[in-house]
Amino acid sequence: MLRKNGTEKMHVDMKTRSMTSGCLERSVSWWFNLDVGNNINSSLNSLPLHPDVAHLEWLLGHWESKTLGQGTYPTIKSFHYHEQANFTHCGQPLLDYAFYAFHGDTGRPLHREVGFLRPRAGTDQIALIGAQNTGLSIVEEGEVRGKEITLTSHSVSRITFGKEPRVVKTKRILSLDQDGKLRQCFSMATSNQEMRPHLEITYCRLSQMLSRVTEKWDMVL
């Protein structure tokens, strides 16, 4: 299948899907959905970007890892992974985000996280409200400095039957480098480990949402 923008060619059979793009080459299992970000973007491109999130426009779009990300922690075996990152908006004063990670060798689904980035109007403050398939629900707060966001957990909740050791604190940095690549560094502390680096990955943008900033906004959230 050749996409309309001509940037990706995909060959699909019952078991595997091979994708070649200017950003990444790999073979992954058939369930790896590379259309998620583009489908979302297509339906929202016509909406104006709320002025309260205009300074976050650099995040908008569909991103994928160019090289394998690295996962480490004292209590687990180190691993490598691919990841999609989608940042979209629906005209409200916040961004929707989603991260979908897959094992670097097998393509097996790993961590998944969805949520919102909500800035405090007129300030550098920002909050992340997220839910993970590991059973965690996290509220992180921090600051936006240019094209870098630093967040530290304000609260971490989990399901009652979650595995030990439990996550008790998180920290992450999202930043855009001079080459236009997005980087995410995620650290965490657990019930038996102090704050340590856990995940680090770099993404390149495959598509970007078109947005318009409106000065007059009737909707109040």
From TrEMBL:
InterPro entries listed in its UniProt record: Calycin, Nitrobindin, THAP4-like_heme-bd
Protein species of origin: Eptatretus burgeri
PANTHER family associated with the record: PEROXYNITRITE ISOMERASE THAP4, THAP4 PROTEIN
Name recorded for this polypeptide: THAP4-like heme-binding domain-containing protein
Matches recorded under Gene3D superfamilies: 2.40.128.20
One Pfam family hit: THAP4_heme-bd
Coiled-coil stretches noted in the UniProt entry, renumbered to this chain: none
Record field: catalytic activity: peroxynitrite = nitrate
Domain THAP4-like heme-binding, residue spans: 53-205
